[in-house]
Amino acid sequence: MSEFLDFLKHKYAYVAIGEFKPGRFAEAQRLYEKAVSSYKQGFQGAFLLQKPGTDEGIAIIMWEKIEDMEANKNEIYQKVLEEMGPLFVNPPKTDFYEVCNEIDGFSEE
Questions:
Q1: What InterPro entries does its record include (predicted)?
Q2: Is there a smaller number of Cβ atoms within 10 Å at the N or the C end of the chain?
């Protein structure tokens, strides 16, 4: 029964969509990796996507609960936000999404 209840639990995704100033994506990526590496409680994984040939990107950070993101706001997180802010053309659009479906890719095992 507990496996079924665990199955019913949904993760949450924090999504940020933005554009960096020309040539600043690599620096933003380094800062993103630094921030994400400091996350612990409830952290479920992260993705950083870049539109090919541009400085536009989408950051997706997976959390067990929305509150877990708040619990992970530490000195590293604050410092990274301060360093990353000036790299954006405009502030990114951010929001939380509930993960309603998760489908694994094909495996030849």
A1: Dimeric_a/b-barrel
A2: C
Q: What is the pLDDT along the chain (109 residues), one digit of tens a residue?
A: 555 545 557 899 999 999 999 999 999 999 999 999 999 999 999 999 999 999 999 999 999 999 999 899 888 889 998 999 999 999 999 999 999 888 888 878 7
Widest Cα–Cα separation across the chain: 52
Residue 91 falls inside a structural domain: yes
* Residues 6 or more apart in contact with residue 38 via CB below 8 angstroms: 72, 74, 76, 77
pTM: 0.84
* CATH code, 69: 3.30.70.100
83 occurs within a structural domain: yes
Helices 75-84 and 25-36 cross at an angle (nearest 10°) of 170
The number of folded domains in the chain is 1
> Domain limits at 87?
17-98
